[in-house]
Amino acid sequence: MAGSSRDPHELMLLFHTQERDLYCRLVRQLGQNPERMKQVIALWLWFESIDHYEFIQRVSSYKGDDVILGFVREAEACLDRLMDQREQTRGDELPLTSYLIAEKMDLRFFESHRDEAIKGVRSIFDNVCQIIFDDVLVERAAEAANHPDDHHLSTSGLHDIKQPAREGSSQEEGSASSAAVAVSLPAQTHTVLPPRGSTLNPMALPWSPEINRSPEDLRSMFITFSRGYPISRADIVEFFNERYGRCLETVMMERASPGQQPMYGRLVFRNASTIARVLNGQRTAKFLINGRHLWARMYTPRRG
User: Fold this and answer.
1) What highest taxon heads this organism's lineage (predicted)?
2) Cys staple from 301: which of 58, 117, 139, 217, with CB 3.0 to 4.6 Å?
3) pLDDT for 116-139, tens place per residue?
4) Cα dihedral: 273, 192, 208, 268 (round 10)
5) DSSP 82-99
6) CA–CA separation, 155 vs 50, rounded Å?
7) How many other C-beta atoms are found inside a 10 Å radius of the C-beta of residue 132?
8) Measured CA distances, 207 to 73, 203, 212, 275 (Å)
9) DSSP per residue over 177-215, as a string?
10) Which domains occur in the chain, in start order?
């Protein structure tokens, strides 16, 4: 689809706009340590991955700097406990965090779930935060937004998949450096044939009414998954079409470097209403596809 492909780093930055805004507030306005704030936001993203939805959005909504810094101090205490660093003068309570997630959480949680938490936070830190908070990439995306006419992106970033049939998963997951593939997903149309005994020409082309669709951007969602745990395009198509009916029009995936797996992409649905069903009232949705996690979020197009 002409004009649909974007630089994969730009795509990831757009996906995590809210996290980057909060990071800038913490570092630039509140004077916090940049590397430490990457760890803090990695922890909060991990909270969201274990079903504490909209954690970052709700933290960001507070206007008072003291409240924001209170959440930061609690997050740092959680990270210290994960690293087995105890602060003798501090108790185990996490009152702000507990209030936000509407359930009791204290530092003992990070002792009983230490391995799971370390693995999850470290994965998000390495595969998400080290990318979305990289100054070079942030400046590059800002420059692209300021000079849209000079930023026509080729299909080397994302490529379209419009697929009617399941592709072999072993080939799918090992072909990150292959040429772009474009296969059409058959449109859902309702063919009207003449009734028996009709005088209409039975050899005429059947009438298939066109469906008026919303602009592509309004029917799109970002998707991400963890490095080292790829999900094939065929599995994504199969999962969403089985769960929501034949809903997908296009799946676009990052073209990863040789030896690397895609980490993010974009779904385009046939109908914008499917997005509401996918999100189910949340800002993000998490799915388990063949034992691997996929996160989905509303697509935010860049405005030139």
Assistant:
1) Eukaryota
2) 217
3) 999 989 988 988 898 889 864 556
4) 30
5) HTT---TT--SB-HHHHH
6) 34
7) 22
8) 64, 12, 16, 29
9) TSPP---PPPP----BPPPTT--S-TTSPPB--------
10) 8-141 (no CATH), 155-298 (3.30.70.330)
